[in-house]
């Protein structure tokens, strides 16, 4: 493990907060016309994974005053990936 306990705790809290937010927002079928995608589920899943990644990378940059090295980046991505099934489950239960 490369990241310190303080950053790991912040990541956990950020991800938990985002999981709660995802469950509260309705699907947005109108975005399909705007972004021209085929699968709403795949689009939203990718969007939320990318959002978490960007949010955590930005937090790392702001807190550590440097970009994550390869090991730190891998740990951030791996932490997000451990929640991928939960994100998929939440997205599949959302209503329009």
Describe what this molecule looks like in 3D.
This protein has helices at residues 5-24, 31-35, 40-64, 70-81, 84-93. It is mainly α and 96 residues long. It has one domain. Helix 3 (40-64) crosses helix 4 and helix 3 packs across helix 5 (84-93). It is elongated. The protein starts with a helix and ends with a helix.
Topology:
Blueprint: H1 5-24, H2 31-35, H3 40-64, H4 70-81, H5 84-93
Tally of helical segments: 5
- Share of helix among residues? over 70%
Could you give the distance between the termini?
40 Å
Assess the beta-strand content as a share of residues.
under 5%
Shape annotation: elongated
Instruction: Say how many strands there are.
Output: 0
- What is the average of the pLDDT values? 92
Main sheet, how many strands, which sense, barrel?
A: none
* Integer tally of domains: 1
Instruction: Name the structural class.
Output: mainly alpha
| SSE series | HHHHH
Query: What is the alpha-carbon Rg in Å?
Result: 15 Å
Poorly predicted sequence stretches spanning 5 or more consecutive residues: none
What does this entry show, briefly?
The chain has helices at 5-24, 31-35, 40-64, 70-81, 84-93.
What are its keywords?
single chain; 96 residues
